[in-house]
Structures are given as C-alpha cells and as structure tokens.
Design brief:
Layout (H helix, E strand, L loop, with lengths): L7 H7 L4 H6 L15 H7 L5 H16 L5
Length: 72
C-alpha cells in the first residue's frame, strides 16, 4: 500500500504502474526525467500541493486494480 511517507525511489521501483498518474498530477519522479529524493509527501509539499491524501487514494486504486482486474 502506498502512503505519503513512501520514498519516491521505492514507489517507482515497487509500483511502476503509477508513474504516469504521478506525472499527470505534476509530480514528476525519477523515471519521468527529474531526479527526486525523499518521500511522496515531501515531493507534494515541494510542489505546493495540499491534496496529497486524495492523490495517495488514487495511486492505491491503481495498484489494487492491477492486482485484481475489474476493481477500481
């Protein structure tokens, strides 16, 4: 499960299917061409985003849908 405390490098390695959604939200990451270190929450704060919990929920829906097709 993804939380706002997950490190970006762990997120990209463990859940590569969410990289596109991150980019769509303006949260570029290592695979997107901009090296980022720290947590997902750190990255969101650096972009002045206040809706990180909503984004985390969306990311978790993506990984659940991948694990269980037909859900999400």
């Amino acid at each position: 499960m993804i939380t706002k405390d997950i490190y970006i490098e762990d997120l990209v390695r463990d859940y590569p299917e969410v990289v596109g959604l991150l980019a769509d939200k303006g949260l570029v990451c290592v695979l997107c061409g901009e090296p980022v270190w720290g947590t997902l929450g750190d990255l969101a704060r650096s972009k002045d985003m206040e809706n990180i919990d909503t984004i985390v929920d969306e990311l978790n829906r993506v990984i659940v849908a991948k694990e269980k097709p037909g859900i999400g």
